[in-house]
Amino acid sequence: MEKTIVVLPGDGIGPEVTREAVRLLETVGERFGHTFHFAYAKLGGVAIDETGTPLPEETLKACLESDAVLLGAVGGPKWDRLPGPQRPEAGLLALRKALGVFANLRPITVYPPLASASTLKPEVVDGVDFVIVRELTGGLYFGPKERRKGDHGIEVSDTLVYSEQEIERILRLAFELARQRRGHLTSVDKANVLESSRVWREIAERLAPEYPDVQLTHLLVDNAAMQLVKNPRQFDVIVTENMFGDILSDEAAMITGSIGLLPSASLGSGGPGLYEPIHGSAPDIAGKGLANPLATFASVAMMLDYGFGLGAEAEAVRQAIARTLAEGWRTADIAAGGPALSTEQMGETVRNALR
Q1: pTM, 2 dp
Q2: Residue 209 has what pLDDT?
Q3: Domains (ranges, CATH) in the chain?
Q4: Which residues define the annotated binding site?
């Protein structure tokens, strides 16, 4: 198999973790007989510095013509004072929209050797394994925004907009995923306050009879945030709108012990997917070899699985990660003060396990 992957190293620790991920993909190719071609492009702050825009046309063109896109991270304090449309994050939002990747899948899995690394008690997090499905191209982040001068100073508005079609397609994807897993779907909304959430809940209830093998339950977002800490094992698949999903998935990340462990896949309806760790650019440790590449490696596994249909190869990567952790190898974020590998050393350790 031959595939073209566009690599967007981005900002902060992005170049470090994507460099190790490319090496991992090369090892996968060597072991399983595949050829991966890599094309590099700029996104985010580095693109602003070099081209004046967070998403250059040549980057977008390359991504649209690829088989998959691997992203490191974007953003940092250097660009925080720029107007919203000119900031690094605006480039990422525009890329998601252009690729049509409306569903963001974020698996939350606790590796047994790291159960004690969580801030929650080991007996609470032991066996946690669920997926958050976040709608990615609608809602507050993409609705009309306005800043105006009012009688009492500045007045601002952000408009939450969803169409029935947008809600239905993300819910259907979540129902299908729950059907493939343990058959339990939790839909998270704020239906006691928001009209958009009431429509969201109505559509979920309308679709539920088509999936008799899936148990549908509803949670208000504030209760969902509490339940994630109280009893995370109760969840199988969680589906929610854009902003709620953004917040809840970062909260859920800490269940595992480190945000440096968790991957994501942003999928659409046939075009290239976007695969990235959820940890952000971490500018305070950039260039120091402290970044944990495992979230990016797990994102590579999702690319192999969802993007290329290479299930055995994806499982081999996941097993290599699990074996590395079981043998006691750690980066600084999960070392608990003990010996820690650098980014590059962890990458080589996982690749050796894969070999």
Answers
A1: 0.91
A2: 98
A3: 1-104+259-355 (3.40.718.10), 119-256 (3.40.718.10)
A4: 76-89, 96, 106, 134, 222, 246, 250, 280-292
